[in-house]
Design goal:
With 346 residues, the chain is an alpha/beta fold. It has 2 domains: 32-134 and 265-304, 3-Layer(aba) Sandwich (D-Maltodextrin-Binding Protein, domain 2), CATH 3.40.190.10; 136-264 and 320-343, D-Maltodextrin-Binding Protein, domain 2. It is 41% helix and 20% strand. It has helices at residues 7-30, 43-58, 69-78, 92-100, 176-187, 191-194, 198-206, 219-228, 239-247, 277-287, 290-300, 326-343, and strands at residues 33-39, 61-67, 87-91, 104-105, 123-124, 129-134, 136-142, 165-168, 212-216, 233-238, 252-255, 261-263, 266-271, 303-304, 321-322. The strands form 2 sheets. Strands 1, 2, 3, 4, 5, 6, 13 and 14 form an 8-stranded mixed sheet that branches. The radius of gyration is 24 Å and the shape is globular.
Length: 346
């Protein structure tokens, strides 16, 4: 009967139905991608080193969104329950805020095997995030103007630097080192005590205002001023950007002053509810692995955190390295930023 479907026709229809159901999976497999949020200054090496390596190995696509850590936190907050970011690379104090808001997924060795090879001090809050690099902070300077460099953090308060000093805003994580160093210079307290005496730090920074050319939130513009000689120094500059510019031929260098330098660890985390979770875990695992860290530690001028990767040549390994109490920062940073905005405007 014409109204009946033969067994052969039914089988054909079944095969077609299966094909239609399977097709989207094939398309998804061909179009696998993750969105990674990170620092704008990291975009060149992520896209030139990490991205080609990872995309070829996993047959996928990485979309890297470069901005500030606090902006990445806002993205996760606004999209909670419907995230589009899978992985975020951001600063440790902002990681603490993200953990408190339940925005991160814990990293475990079964999902991230290279976690076992990371220095213990680079794995935080029982695996909520890990550091994949540890850049350092010193004073970037224009070599044409200051051929002998900068011997002390205190030098930049000298009147000869009037209108020639750039500071990172306290909105930027690298800005915190200047607050703590200012307190140390003002009080003579050890750094572990000085960083708790932020009132002395703010008062000392206020004395620097006559020497300020500008305060930045966007690093590239600040370095343009330094390279052109409009600025003589950027105080609290990151090795991962300053030494990259030096290697590219810019007339600048990064001093490790006598009072020491600051560790500024770079963290990586899994977003809670991340799309393409398997790919996201693979990305984090590779960033913590010896192969990727061996590729990126030298061009980023940072210390690796994988125990099997040696530090790159040229690191100031004899300088005193100051660490920062990021939990203390997380508790107080909002008030510090408000005070900064009131007292450090130029």
């Amino acid at each position: 009967m014409t109204g009946n479907i033969s067994r052969r026709a039914a089988l054909k229809a079944g095969v077609g139905a299966v094909a239609l159901v399977a097709a989207p999976a094939v398309v998804r497999a061909q179009a696998k991608e993750i969105v990674v949020g990170g620092a704008a200054s990291h975009k060149p090496w992520v896209e030139s080193i990490v991205q080609p390596f990872f995309e070829q190995k996993y047959t996928c696509k990485i979309v890297y969104e470069g901005t500030r850590s606090l902006v990445n936190l806002e993205k996760m907050q606004k999209n909670k329950g419907n995230q589009y970011l899978s992985v975020v690379q951001m600063d440790d104090p902002v990681m603490i805020l993200a953990v408190k808001e339940g925005l991160l997924e814990k990293l475990t060795p079964d999902k991230v095997p290279n976690l076992a090879n990371i220095r213990p001090d680079a794995v935080h809050m029982d695996g909520m995030w890990a550091n994949y690099l540890a850049p350092w902070q010193g004073i970037a300077y224009n070599k044409n103007v200051l051929p002998n460099g900068v011997a002390s953090w205190g030098d930049v308060w000298d009147a000869k630097f009037k209108g020639r000093v750039i500071l990172p805003s306290l909105q930027n994580t690298e800005g915190l080192a200047n607050l703590f160093m200012a307190s140390h210079l003002a009080t003579g307290k050890p750094m572990s005590e000085a960083e708790k005496d932020t009132d002395s730090g703010f008062k000392q920074l206020a004395k620097l205002k006559p020497n300020l050319l500008t305060v930045y939130t966007q690093m590239p513009q600040a370095f343009n001023l330094l390279e052109q000689g409009e600025a003589w120094v950027i105080v609290g500059a990151l090795s991962s950007y300053a030494l990259e510019r030096k290697a590219a031929g810019a007339p600048i260098d990064l001093a490790a002053p006598k009072e020491g330098i600051f560790a500024s660890p770079s963290g990586i985390c899994m977003v809670q509810g991340a799309p393409a979770a398997d790919l996201a875990y693979a990305y984090i695992n590779e960033m913590l692995g010896a192969e990727v860290q061996g590729k990126i530690s030298a061009p980023t001028f940072a210390l690796p955190t994988n125990k099997s990767v040696p530090p790159p040549a040229g690191m100031p390994i004899n300088a005193t390295m100051h660490s920062i109490d990021w939990a203390f920062v997380a508790e107080n940073r909002n008030e510090w930023v408000k005070r900064w905005d009131r007292e450090m405007g130029i």
